[in-house]
């Protein structure tokens, strides 16, 4: 019997279709995890969202991934099982505590789940997180379907506590966001391990760290010897003329493309099972390695002296693979599929998006804009094209600072970032600007939510990860506490006032902050009042320059599509001829 959201239900032996991410959360629940601390990042976000539905687990959104991992490590030292989830670039942010936790080991089991994004579906780069596990010296597991997502995370906690190590689980977009049948089990409560002070283990000063490093290498040596017989690494013998070593989602592609070949499927991908690999290689005529990303397996297997007939010379490092790609690489017949051309769907800010007004003004003022990671990154695209650079979370502020120091002028320079990004890694950049007496204007786009990853709460929204009331951190107050004297709050749909404020603040010889405050159009409905283009329209197309997806061309003139319009009124604000009116009629009047 388990309790979810206050309801007691019997889930024993029940089977359910679940996302890979939902299955990860279920596995953490069944493993008795007590603490989860994460930062939302596609494709990992739903793991933490799902975990928050279990009453037995404390779940929080941390301001960033570094904080999330540190909370998880603290909970582990406190004697309970813990989890921190992130996307691949988030592991970069968390690398500092991650590498040292690999030395110290654990008390309660500690797992870090990272989801890579092969193909850059929702990220600024591709990254192969397997190298993080190898570099840090921790075991890495990689599931291939939703059932394995649940099973592997449970096994990760057993490995963590058996070998006294943090465990990294690697997922990716396809594993995290594909659905599969998962057999549910009961939660097994783990009794908290009493805390015992151990300075030699947990205080990573140089003298202790040297000894901890030796222990860590011994630990990984034991795991390397044991992984040959672990059931998560398995051989499926078939046609011995061809053998393939693979893991994760590529295993599914291989089975789809060539179901009869012999396969070594690795579930533990660091360390790799050297004895099992050599034994498998001896039983097949030709050995191939199929892995998305970099030649991580291939380099290690070739270094063992194992002859490899093909690997990255047959495939690409960039992007995702598929069954048909594998068929083509091996010269097999590729089924012909009648492709129906899908209509184009360029990424756009949503109808009613509060960011649209700001980018319209920045474009009109021809400002140089250092951008950041979030929905507002789409401001770089036509028709506004109002962003000049985007690097990583929080970098807009620090890039603007560096740009100003290089150019020597900040009059046409601004940095833009969202509320969640500001808490993630923007505050330190603002401190840096003030401390080093920078000139420039930072614009914080406060839409009251973490938007692009699916509307998660953050420290300014007044709710926590479970939807409960929480203290709302005042962004303007933080900016003033950082020493910024000029802080202005404005509705970004007040176009005329916004333009004047931007002109005023960017003209200063001091640091200033503008906070645009308007809720995301998808969480707060605008008044249900449609807008209508009247006969006063001069076809100047100013309304189309804001890039709203609810406005398109029809019969050579702008037309507001009723089904897309949310009634935000920005188009009426920018129209110079008052040609867009409020009507009390229904959408049929359009």
> What percent of the residues sit in helical stretches (DSSP H or I)?
25-40%
Low-confidence stretches: 585-590
Assess the beta-strand content as a share of residues.
15-25%
| Overall form | globular
Mean pLDDT: 93
* Rg measurement, Å: 27 Å
Instruction: Give the beta-strand count.
Output: 24
- How can the largest sheet be summarized? 7 strands, mixed
- SS summary, helix count: 20
Q: How far is the first residue's CA from the last residue's CA?
A: 55 Å
Summing up helix and strand content along with how strands pair, one would put the structural category as alpha/beta
Sheet with most strands: strand arrangement = 5-4-6-7-9-8-14
Describe the model.
The chain has 20 helices and 24 strands. The strands form seven sheets. It has a seven-stranded mixed beta sheet with strand order 5-4-6-7-9-8-14. Strands 16-17-18-20-19 form a five-stranded parallel beta sheet, with helices on both faces. Helix 16 links the parallel strand 16 and strand 17 (413-418). The longest helix is centred in the middle third of the chain and has 21 residues, at 206-226.
